[in-house]
Amino acid sequence: MKTLRGTFDNLVSTMKRYDLYQKDDEVDFELNELSNLIDEVEKRMVCIEKSAEEINEAIGRYTERVDNNETFVMSITDHDSIMRGSHDIEIALDLKETECIDNNWYGLFAPKDEEEIVPRETIILIPKDSIVEWKEPRLYYNAKVGAKAKVIQDYTTEHESDDNYLIVEWLDEKANEQQSGGYERDCFKEEFDQPSVPTFLCHSDDIHSVVKDVISKLKDVQVDGETMDYIVKQLGFEEYLLRSLVMKADFKDTKDLLREKFELEL
Length: 266
Known about the structure:
By secondary structure, this protein is of the alpha+beta class. 51% of the residues lie in helices and 8% in strands.
């Protein structure tokens, strides 16, 4: 059974698979807004269900008498419960009406100051082992323009807010006996050479180590194509790999494969 949240999560997963947005860009912002709205709508739906249950409960007290064509007088409490319940449903259906949020109906809407604060994701801006160049002569520094240094610690979004320093190790004579250590990021050119790793995710030494270990194990068991196909399916990367392979392959090879597939299906 499809749900708003499930459908949204599937969409986000697909967009991530094809790198259709980046963290903190406009698309990410809009997706967060939509995610919050879905959360609110789903809570409003719970309010509607509970209000309907209260209405049914109040009406249920008189169902048997109605079935028996008996006369009865509805209590003021039940009358008010039905009227209030129907009114609550109207409020919950109107996204412009915030009463259900302001009054935290059924404990579903936590007050703003009690909401869990989600920490900002740390993003690596300059990966460890990147090569950076000194930008220009500066007073009290010996390094010459173009002096190369290796970054020995990931520079992340956390450093931006903290100290804005790159921790480097000098690599050539242009360093002119400048000591390795921390230097302001602005001292270096904006361009830098990425470390030689196969993917962006592998900029993390720990993750790269896991990836190499997985590859080594697959080689040890002499994994075959059928098993790799199974692994790819289990990871949910079929569509991504298909597109990637088609885009990277020679056009003639792709055309020949399509012709072969067409002939096999005749």
